[in-house]
Structures are given as C-alpha cells and as structure tokens.
Amino acid sequence: MGGVSNHAYFTDGRDHLVDEVVYIHTKPYTFQQHLSAGGFSAVYMVKRSDGVDVTVKVIDKSGVPYMTEALVMSYLTEVSHLEKLR
C-alpha cells in the first residue's frame, strides 16, 4: 500500500516519526523504530491499527529537487504492482 502525506520529517536531522501516529488511508500507524535511511527516504518499523508490525518507507520530497507529483505517483503505481505480486 502506498500513500502520500504532507508531513516534513527530515528538516532538522531529528527523527520526528518515532512514537508518532500517522494516518495512511484513514488508518492509524504508530511509528516505533527507525530502521534505515538512504538519499531521500527512510524505513521504519510501524504497528498497524490491528497490531501487526509492518515496515513503511517514507520519501522526503524536499530532499530531491526534481521530485514532482508525477514521480510520486509513479512510485505509488510501482508499489501497487508489487502488492499484486504478493
């Protein structure tokens, strides 16, 4: 599942997501642990509202000057295709 949020998480080097609840497709996800980070994204261990642990990749759109809504939508389309392979 993919989603888009307007939150800014990488602005001052602190990890603003750990212990935060973010709604993705109207469902709450509690960010528990930062697992890794790359050039313009980070991966977190997150607990879904049903108690299941999942990983969530968060893309920092401000970290990539050429990141446009079209690229975000392309990424979400890729996520959708990968979900169908599961």
Automatic annotation (TrEMBL):
InterPro entries: Kinase-like_dom_sf. SUPFAM superfamilies: Protein kinase-like (PK-like) (SSF56112). This is Protein kinase domain-containing protein.
